[in-house]
Design goal:
Length: 213
Amino acid sequence: MDLIEQTREYVSEILADEPSTHDMSHIERVENVCMSIREQEGGDELVLRLAALLHDVGIIKEHEQGGDHAQYSAEIAQEFLTVAGADKDLTEHVTACIRSHRFSSGLKAHTLEARILQDADRIDALGAVGIFRSLVSMGALRAMRSTIGTVKERSMNAYNEDPLEGFYEYMNNKPFKILERLNTGTAREIARERLKLMHVYLNALQEETCCIK
């Protein structure tokens, strides 16, 4: 089994019970978007695939302990890749990409591959899939608070007494600010198309709920 497939299998096992939206389908969408951006922008394919596959592998630890899943993911990736026999330079490049990928951390990406991973991860918060993920995530976060007491301080909108208000707050704080924080021209082209759909949806939602008291 080559390193990519070994990594895919490893991550699939860890994220099998992931209750929010950092699941394996998200991982593989980010991987695919990385490859699409790479076709236009360049970048090392092996670094990008490994970074995409491993970038959220620490999310379960964040659910359980709090903290930052990007940092946890980098630590887990370093251990996994070292045991798998990856060379030191590859491991360091991949883990550096993972550490800087998170939108809310605001960290600067220092390599092309890190910039592409940031872009691909942010694009998965846009468009139809972005709307779907945000609503599923809100429900999962509210459920985790009521069942195991976990509260994500970076996602307080999810706990708003009025879910609609929480959703509007999320949309204004993340998706509609993503375009200005993308690194590559290719990613910005993808984002503009996805944002068109989000604006249409949000306008329709506001029209349909404006008279509800």
